[in-house]
């Protein structure tokens, strides 16, 4: 099978491409301009194109004989007004209608449907790299104490309450106080904002969970070593991620950074964790 990989930023797309090669797949990479930032991807057959040039991308993928796509890597959500869409992308935006202005999950589900109509099957990057998600348990550092566990539980409650609104995947909680909830700004900006709101005393926790209805093929929660660094700079004590559903972008690099910074990283099954609290 020949895979088309639409690559955003960060180290994860290169890990996925290498895993696909190891499984015997050919890989063709579309470097999304203004998003991709890993020079390792240029070692693969590739083109570089802006997001708005969807028609050009589709034509090249077809010319390469690609039927399966993987979308991964950091990307910010662009306004349709700044995309400078080509004819194909303009038609897609028109078909998406109100979904363009809805939450990420609604938009991405609709977009995957359109790619399916174009003859492409979208597969999850995790299916190529199962080790990118973690089983439940303590991954690094000392187990969270009673206060940290209470903060994690508070974070679970907040994210579950917001899930139907398709808002964000992360929350920062310190001593029971919600310092910030992730929206369109992303996790790094959330952590920067939380740093300015931190209280004296024991540091808080970043909790990152998938929404129950989340489209995990293209929008799974992701944490990496940069997340750990920013969490430490915000004065947090640890990070709780959802077991089996949150991607560890740079694998061991994330855990090494956590050990260096003295943060715990724990993978949880939210409902099980809540029952045990």
TrEMBL record:
EC number: 3.6.1.54
Residue ranges constituting the LpxI C-terminal domain according to the UniProt record: 136-266
Superkingdom of this protein's organism: Bacteria
UniProt entry keywords in alphabetical sequence: Hydrolase
Any single Pfam family the record assigns to this protein: LpxI_N
Domain LpxI N-terminal: 2-131
InterPro entries: LpxI (IPR053174), LpxI_C (IPR010415), LpxI_C_sf (IPR043167), LpxI_N (IPR041255)
Signal peptide stretch: none
Enzyme class: hydrolase
One example GO MF annotation: hydrolase activity
Glycoprotein recorded as keyword: no
Protein name as annotated: UDP-2,3-diacylglucosamine diphosphatase LpxI
Gene responsible for this protein: lpxI
């Amino acid at each position: 099978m020949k895979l088309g990989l639409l690559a955003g930023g960060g180290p994860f797309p290169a890990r996925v491409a290498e895993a696909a090669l190891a499984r015997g797949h050919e890989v063709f990479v579309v470097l999304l301009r203004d998003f991709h930032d890993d020079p390792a991807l240029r070692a693969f057959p590739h083109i570089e194109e802006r997001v708005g040039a969807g028609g050009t991308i589709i034509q090249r993928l077809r010319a390469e004989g690609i039927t399966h796509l993987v979308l991964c890597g950091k990307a910010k959500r662009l306004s349709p007004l700044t995309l400078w869409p080509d004819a194909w992308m303009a038609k897609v935006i028109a078909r998406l209608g109100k979904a363009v202005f809805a939450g990420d999950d609604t938009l991405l589900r609709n977009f995957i449907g359109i790619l399916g109509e174009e003859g492409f099957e979208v597969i999850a990057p995790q299916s190529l790299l199962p080790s990118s998600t973690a089983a439940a348990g303590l991954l690094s550092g000392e187990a969270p104490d009673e206060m940290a566990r209470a903060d994690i539980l508070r974070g679970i409650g907040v994210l579950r309450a917001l899930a139907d609104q398709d808002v964000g995947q992360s929350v920062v909680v310190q001593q029971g106080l919600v310092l910030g909830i992730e929206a369109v700004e992303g996790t790094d900006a959330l952590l920067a904002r939380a740093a300015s709101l931190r209280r004296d005393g024991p540091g808080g926790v970043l909790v990152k969970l998938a929404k129950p209805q989340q489209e995990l093929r293209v929008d799974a929660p992701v944490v990496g070593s940069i997340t750990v660094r920013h969490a430490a700079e915000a004065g947090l004590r640890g990070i709780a991620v959802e077991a089996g559903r949150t991607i560890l972008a740079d694998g061991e690099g994330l855990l090494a950074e956590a050990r260096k910074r003295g943060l715990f990283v724990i993978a949880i099954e939210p409902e099980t964790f809540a029952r045990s609290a």
